[in-house]
Amino acid sequence: MKLFIAGALLAMLLGACVLPRPTQNVLPSQYYPAIEEPSTTLLIMLPGIQDSMLDFERSGLVDLVHEIKPDWDMLAVDAHIGYYRQRSIIDRLREDIVGPAHARGYDQIWLTGPSLGGFGSLLYACRDSNKQVDGVIAIAPYLGERAILKDIDNAGGAANWQAQDAGEVIERELWACLRDTPAAELWLGWGSEDRMRHGNALLAELLLREHVFNRPGGHRWDIWIELWREILQAQDDPARILHEGFGF
Question: 148, 174 in Cβ contact below 8 A?
Fold first, then answer.
């Protein structure tokens, strides 16, 4: 099934006052090599709707990953909203980014991103029929509009939910995949005042408690950076997380 932009998602994106940007035949990317070799893990970073691939460096995430995961390579991808509107985001990621990375022989390939980038990361993991992606770190991901989230609430949570007519097709597809557990390992973080918090809390019910992080704050880079810090540290020390910030 080709990706399309659901009406509700498109309304949200247009409401964000994002100017159109042209797409390219090959997704542009920025490579950040590991500071320790050999590197066998690649972290692919997808931006939020109002961000560019360079914001991962500007925000301090690149330095943070170098600090906590010095043997990880990173690849920031200019996966802007134009590719979602064009319905080409999944194909471009597969052909230009994930496929070539897998061919290079990485032992682990991870996707991450905030907001729209988190949505794209989760959707790609759900479409990853070749199982080339090992994990996703979704930070405050967009997970659908009110109709689909209310339908999940009415079902008693995502584990009990069965797709009917509520929401858009792409929202139902994503939630059905998340309910049935994609092959990739999922980690999730969001701020307690984030406008995406409803969908994020519903997704949290499907995940391992140790893979879910919540802290005070809204839909902002400073909150996202601290969530990435906690998640990256927890991956190296899972025993440390029965976690004071777990408060929803």
Answer: no
Got the DSSP string for 162-207? ---SSS-HHHHHHHHHHHT--SSEEEEEEETT-TTHHHHHHHHTTS
Nearest by Cα to 124 from 188, 178, 172, 197: 178
Query: What's the CATH superfamily of 7-240?
Result: Alpha/Beta hydrolase fold, catalytic domain (3.40.50.1820)
Residue 152: count of CB within 10 angstroms of its CB? 27
Task: State the Cα–Cα distance between residues 165 and 156, nearest whole angstrom.
Answer: 17
What's the whole-model pTM score? 0.89
DSSP-derived 3-state class of residue 112: strand
Q: Residue with structure tokens 């991870």?
A: 110
How far apart, in whole angstroms, are the C-alpha atoms of residue 212 and residue 248? 10
Asked if residue 45 has pLDDT above 90, the reply is yes
pLDDT class for 18, splitting at 50, 70, 90?
Answer: low
Partners of 215 in the beta sheet?
191
Query: Amino acid identity, residue 9?
Result: L
Domain ranges of the chain: 7-240
pLDDT at residue 96 is higher than 80: yes
